[in-house]
Each structure stands twice: as C-alpha cells, then as structure tokens.
Design goal:
The protein has 207 residues and is α/β, with parallel strands linked by helices. The protein is 24% helix and 28% strand. It contains five helices and ten strands.
Length: 207
Amino acid sequence: MPKTIPMIITNDTILVKEKEGDKFLTFNMPGIEPEVNIPFYHEFAKRISECQYYFKEFIRKEYGKKYSKNILAIIIPDDTSALESIFINEFFVNSGACKAVAKTTMAQALSRNHSRYISVSKTRRNVILEYISNDEIMARKLYDFNEYNVKQICEDAKRLHIDIEYSGVPIFVNNINMNMDDFFDLGEVISPKAFMDKIAAIDVEKI
C-alpha cells in the first residue's frame, strides 16, 4: 500500500506532513517572490524544472528511498480555479516526488464530524463562502479580497443555499492563514494547529 503524505497549500507556502509524527514541514522555493493577488505557486511555472527538482529533494530527504511510491493528499485553497488545479496536479506528479496526487479543498477538509456546514476562508485574492454537504461543494460565493463587506458576508451565510435557509448549520472560520480576525464572531474559528491536526490524519480514501 502506498503511503499517503498530507500536504497543504497555504497563501504563502507549502506544508508537508513529516514522516514520523503529526507536525508539518515548510517547503519554500528559493527566489520566489509572489505578486499581489496571485497565488505564489504561479511563479513555479517560470522555473518549473528547478522547482520540481527542489520539491523532489525535499520529499526524498524526509521520506527516504521509496518516496516516489507515495501519494500526495493535497489540500488546496478554496478559490483554486480549474486550470490552477490542473497545474498543481501536473506539477507534483511530474516532479517525480510521488506516485499520484489526490486533491480536495480546504473547505471540504474542515470537518469530518458534520455532514453539512458553512466554511469561510480568505486567500490573497478572495474571501470564500461555501456550503458543504456530504463532502460536496453545494454553493460558493467569492468576494474580492480588497472590497468585501463583513456584514454582507455574514448575511449571505444565512441564505447561501436553499437547504440552510430554514435550518441552521455550523459555520467554520478557517484561520489557517492567520487572516480571519474580521470573522471571528461568525462561527467556530479553526486555528492553524487545529486545521493541521485534522489534515495530519487524512487518508486518500477520504478525499
């Protein structure tokens, strides 16, 4: 059985679970300077072979000789586009650092104890409001990072989907990037440690 390696793409870096234990190691590509409102990994495309090499060596150092037989379970930002998702998949698969890739969004990974809930998160580009039901994204609304209105988002959370208009569901505030202070009163705040603890136990079959 291939080993599952949980991995999180945050606003600023890539976190990879260590081989022994539940802590996450940080992978930083030397010389990468993110642009405003653009995910940092877009810069990987400009130096793709070099970035893939450094990532493969990073995984090899932590996971040993059989590193390439593992599966990366990647948690991606909630506003990742279809094209970005394809790039992420191709980048890591073709790096030689893994056998395959499985992906899910942060919102979908927030809770395994609730079949239905609302997720609120923030990236470099957007504030993302989502309704998750049985691990599926049933509704999503994006707000520009520079122009959002907290009060409006709180109101929208009450009627994001017809399923929740007349029956309340938990609201989780994803604070993995330490940037959700404006939303702490909206619902249960998921700290970086709490989020990483959830992801450390993730299995490919669950995503």
